[in-house]
Structure formats: C-alpha cells, structure tokens
Write a structure and sequence with these properties.
This protein is of the alpha+beta class and about 230 residues long. It has helices at about 20-30, 60-75, 85-110, 110-115, 130-150, 155-175, 185-200, 205-215, 215-230; strands at about 1-5, 35, 50-55, 55-60. The protein folds into two domains: about 1-75, Glutaredoxin (3-Layer(aba) Sandwich), CATH 3.40.30.10; about 85-230, Up-down Bundle (Glutathione S-transferase Yfyf (Class Pi), Chain A, domain 2), CATH 1.20.1050.10. The chain has a four-stranded mixed β-sheet, with helices on one face. Helix 3 packs across helix 5 and helix 3 packs antiparallel against helix 6 (about 155-175).
Length: about 230
C-alpha cells in the first residue's frame, strides 16, 4: 500500500499545502490504492511534505513522487499529449510552484490580518503557552523564507502585479479548453488545480485571490477539477 504523508485538509482545501494537493490528485489519477497519514514532518526525508512511503522506499518532493509513480508503477500522466504540449505543461507548473506559490505564502504568513484571523488557527491544538511560542517561531521562519526567496521584499502593489500577470497568463493559456492542454486532464492539471484552488480560497484576503477571482475561466476550471477528484469535499 502506498502511504502519502500529508498535512491534512484545512480552510476548505483538500490539504493545507498545494504541493500535497497536487500529489493527491496525481495519486487519484494513477488509480493506485493509497492511504494518507498525518504525522507532521516526522520521518520526512527532506524535512518537508509531501513524502510517499512505498514499501521500503521513501520518496520526497511532489515532482519526484510523480516520477516514481511513472517509473516504478507504470503510471502515464501524459494525457496523450505530445512532447511540445507537455513542455508547456512543465513550464506552467514551474511558474506556479516557484513564483505564484510564494504569493500564497505571503498572504498566509506575512499579512497580519490573514495570519491573526486564519493562519494562527493552525496552532490551536497546541497547549498554551507553547502555542504562542510555536506560532511565533513558525511565522518568523516563514517571513525569513519570504525574504530569502525575494517575494517578501516587494511592496503590496508589486505583489499584486505578479499575481495579475501569473494568473492572466494561465487564463490565456487555458483559453476555452476544459483542461490545461486540451480535452483530457494530464499530470500538470494536478498542479494547476492545486495552486489556483489555493489562490481562490475565501479564507484569505489578498491580491492573489482578487486576481484569481477576476478570471471566470480559472474558476470554472477549478470547479471541473474539484468535481472530478474531490467530489466529497465541499
């Protein structure tokens, strides 16, 4: 049995992390039996989630989990598309993972209103006073990561431009197609769904959410993917 280590559903999302959500969709696409496990980062090979336990093998990182499923289990996530189309899919995925993702991190962890009203609830299970210590520790850690990556150095107006440009580009590429590359979903749709659904999450107020909500194409796309892979999640 494959076991995916996850954060768990939160704020109406299939998982707190878009990278975990991406991997959940890939596993659903694969048709392989799997289970999920919540134990934090305990045992995580790279100290991050998701990671997949497959027998004696522990595979970390959503992209390497996909490669493992392809190489070791014969999964085909190509959707029948050609090399040129799949190259576009890879490019879109990396824009979402390496750029748009950090706009979401900023909205959750750096914005005072979002952090105090929503993100801080993640620590409610921790007894006081350790709760405050843990909350401040992780927020400080995320703020440092945002500064090191660069997104934390920009103004709100500049981050809004990034959000608008990323999502306008994605909406233009999607066009009137039901899925990223055409009439059938492929592995890259797992990423598009995960990151756009996160951007649209009503639990957080941000320029990222505003930009996502301005594209009916993206909202309809997320609804289609959600109905396919998470029909039981409201």
């Amino acid at each position: 049995m494959l076991t995916l280590n996850v954060f768990g559903a939160a704020f109406g999302l299939p998982d707190l992390s878009p990278f975990v959500t991406k991997t959940l969709v890939l596993l659903k696409m694969s048709g392989l039996p799997f289970e999920t496990r919540r134990q934090g980062i305990k045992g995580a090979p790279k100290g991050k989630l998701p990671w997949l336990q497959d027998g004696e093998q522990a595979i970390a990182d959503s992209t390497f989990i996909r490669l493992h499923l392809e190489q070791q289990h014969g999964c085909d996530f190509s959707g029948g598309y050609d090399a040129g189309q799949l190259a576009l899919g890879w490019t879109v995925e990396k824009m979402l993972e390496e750029h748009l993702y950090w706009l979401g991190v900023y909205a959750r962890w750096a914005d005072d209103y979002n952090f105090n009203t929503t993100t801080s609830k993640l620590f409610n299970r921790i007894p006081w006073p350790m709760r405050a210590l843990a909350r401040n520790h992780f927020r400080k850690k995320m703020l440092a990561a945002l500064k090191a990556q660069g997104m934390g150095r920009h103004s709100d107006a500049e981050r809004a431009v990034f959000a608008q440009r990323d999502l306008a580009a994605l909406a233009a590429l999607l066009g009137d197609k039901p899925f990223l590359l055409g009439d059938t979903p492929c592995g890259y749709d797992a990423s598009v769904y995960a990151f756009v659904n996160t951007a649209l999450n009503p639990a957080f107020t941000s320029s990222l959410r505003t930009a996502a909500e301005s594209h009916e194409t993206l909202k309809a796309y997320v609804a289609r993917m959600h109905a396919l892979y998470f029909p039981a999640v409201e």
